[in-house]
Amino acid sequence: MTIEVTGPEAPLDCPLCPRLVAFRETNSRLFPSFHNAPVPSFGDLEARFLIVGLAPGLKGANQTGRPFTGDYAGDLLYATLGKFGFLEGEYGGHANDGARLQDAMITNAVRCVPPQNKPVGAEMNACRPFLTERLRALPRLSAILCLGKISHDNTLRAMGQRLSAMKFAHQAAQDFEFNGRTVRLFDSYHCSRYNTNTGRLTETMFENVFSDVRDYLADQP
């Protein structure tokens, strides 16, 4: 099934991925108060900095309707955004907490929650046009942070790049030409509880990536 992609956000009743639609319908019965729909991007429409995650968490963004909101990954991400000057207000873990992003936006490579947090290739392919349009819709885009390898791979493809153009590695960075601008792609391990509990990602490691982004943006218009 195909639908015409006319903007950066998926319709709330997006029909593209049968498995994700079925999971969405199951969750609507189990958790009727949840968002249970594609989660739209959140942030500053004039942002120079875009953060790309993998997909909504079942009881995080799928519950609250805002990327990285309501789970541990969001606690770490928003705290770090605040420390580096990208957050206004207080993050409270829900969509109506009044938090606002400044010069930043958060989105996901796949907009619907997948079973076991693992989208399959066909689902990533189907959702990728929304990511491409999200990238194109930011007129001042200068820096992209990919959280994890799947985000990295999908973002490269959304930019029309081959995966061989840049290997994923924590704190890696590389410049690309996209939509008439030079955009620097940054990588970090995903800020999941699993990665922090196992020591694969520490707060210091995560903050080092944000420091690199902030230093880069300091020299951008």
What brief labels describe this structure?
single chain, 221 residues, alpha/beta, 6-stranded mixed β-sheet, two-stranded antiparallel ribbon, 7 helices
Q: What does this protein look like?
A:
- The chain has 221 residues and is α/β, with parallel strands linked by helices.
- The protein has seven helices and eight strands; from the N terminus they run αββααβββαβαββαα.
- The strands form two sheets. A six-stranded mixed β-sheet has the order 1-5-2-6-8-7, with helices on both faces.
- The longest helix has 16 residues.
- The protein is globular, with a radius of gyration of 16 Å.
Can you lay out the helices and strands and say which pair or pack?
Elements: H1 18-30, E1 42-43, E2 49-53, H2 61-64, H3 72-83, E3 87-88, E4 100-101, E5 104-108, H4 121-136, E6 143-147, H5 149-158, E7 173-178, E8 181-188, H6 193-197, H7 203-218
Parallel strand pairs: 2-5, 2-6, 6-8
Antiparallel strand pairs: 1-5, 3-4, 7-8
Helix pairs in contact: 4-5
Computed structural class: alpha/beta
Quote the average pLDDT: 96
Level of helix content? 25-40%
What series of H and E elements makes up the topology? HEEHHEEEHEHEEHH
* Major sheet strand order: 1-5-2-6-8-7
The biggest beta sheet, please?
Answer: 6 strands, mixed
Number of helices: 7
**Low-pLDDT stretches:** none
What portion of the residues fall into strands of 2 or more residues? 15-25%
The coarse silhouette is globular
Query: What distance separates the N and C termini?
Result: 41 Å
Q: What oligomeric state do these chains adopt?
A: single chain
Q: How many E strands? A: 8
Rg for CA atoms: 16 Å
